[in-house]
Amino acid sequence: MTTLAPILEPFFTKRLLAERRASPETVASYRTTFCLLLRFAADRLGRSPSDLDISDLDAPLIGAFLEHLEVDRHNSARTRNVRLAAIHSLFAYAALRAPEHAAVIQRVLAMAGPRATRAQVTFLTDVEADALLASPDLTTWTGRRDHALLAVAIQAGLRLSELTGLKRGDVHLGTGAHIQCWGKGRKQRVTPLTTTTISVLVDWLDEHVGPVDEPLFASRRGGPLSADAVQHLVAKHTLTAASTCPSLRAKRVTPHTLRHTAAMRLLHAGVDTTVIALWLGHERAETTQIYLHADLAIKERALARTAPINARSGRYRPPDPLLAFLEAL
């Protein structure tokens, strides 16, 4: 019997599900990683996945797999690092269960992923957010559902999985109105609601009557909306809103953009970044620093405060490049 299958199966059933109680999203990501890896290794080595051994998945093969993700599947550096993290997790689990392959395991664990370029945070201005909220057709059931979903997404800043996982019982509209959800790392989070969002949800819940364990934003068949469905409806309503708000045409708006929008609104309101981190469910407060980098207005105000008292007002203007060249001679 090979050593891979007896390690891979308990890695999922015992380590991820029983011990770590990993979220369905984490399990799905790891599952996809190893399906891709095993198919790649089987094609490369000419053996079925069930016949593969830990020693077959050595550092050169893992390196070739990561290159395959980049070249053939056009994955970003961030995606490749996610795949490598899943592989590292399996090999760390295998280290104590297959000591005879310690050398191979240590070489794989020593592999480092490529540095990912951090893209500029995209968020909606107040005008753009209002245009997006006004785009659903409120004369239809799906339009009213989409309007309520967009309102919650922009105000609460939930992740896509948190948004699709909301139940009717997660909404509390009495004193101290809030939404509760299970976030990343199985952490429960409570997010307060504004008066406007409360009004939208009251109307939606009055129309969308059902038990507390029913999805808050259901599909036509009554089940929860899929991630693809939410991404599609956000793209559709962004296209509609762009007809009245042209600046939206230059932005790629996704459900995560709405999460960024919620964070930037809090930042503009003067909320401390540690509070924003709690609001968004970030593991570390440092993660919220990306919003400080994205907010040009904050940088402008900082520049104004640090200008010398006797300095003339205005921006720095670099010298003419031709004159600079001559003067440097």
Descriptors:
329 residues, mainly alpha, hpI Integrase, Chain A, 2 domains, 3-stranded antiparallel sheet, 4% strand, globular
Description:
Helices cover 55% and strands 4% of the residues. 26% of the residues are buried. It has helices at residues 4-19, 24-45, 59-71, 77-94, 102-109, 126-133, 141-156, 160-164, 195-207, 227-241, 255-268, 273-280, 289-294, 296-306, 321-327; strands at 171-172, 178-182, 188-192. The model has no long low-confidence stretch (mean pLDDT 86). It is mainly alpha-helical and 329 residues long. The chain has a 3-stranded antiparallel β-sheet with strand order 1-2-3, with no helix packed on it. It folds into 2 domains: 4-109; 126-269, Orthogonal Bundle (hpI Integrase, Chain A). The protein has 15 helices and 3 strands. Helix 7 runs antiparallel to helix 9.
Summarize the structure.
A hairpin with a 5-residue loop joins strand 1 (171-172) and strand 2 (178-182). The protein folds into two domains: 4-109; 126-269, Intergrase catalytic core (hpI Integrase, Chain A, Orthogonal Bundle), CATH 1.10.443.10. It has helices spanning 4-19, 24-45, 59-71, 77-94, 102-109, 126-133, 141-156, 160-164, 195-207, 227-241, 255-268, 273-280, 289-294, 296-306, 321-327, and strands at 171-172, 178-182, 188-192.
CATH topology of the largest domain: hpI Integrase, Chain A
Strand content: under 5%
| Overall average residue pLDDT | 86
- Alpha-carbon distance between the two ends: 75 Å
Assign a percent range to the helix content. 40-55%
Q: What is the helix tally? A: 15
Global geometry? globular
Q: Briefly note the structural class of the backbone.
A: mainly alpha
CATH first level of the largest domain: Mainly Alpha
Number-wise, the strands total: 3
Main sheet: strands, sense, barrel = 3 strands, antiparallel
Rg computed from alpha carbons, rounded to a whole number of angstroms: 25 Å
Q: Which stretches are poorly predicted, pLDDT < 50 over at least 5 residues?
A: none
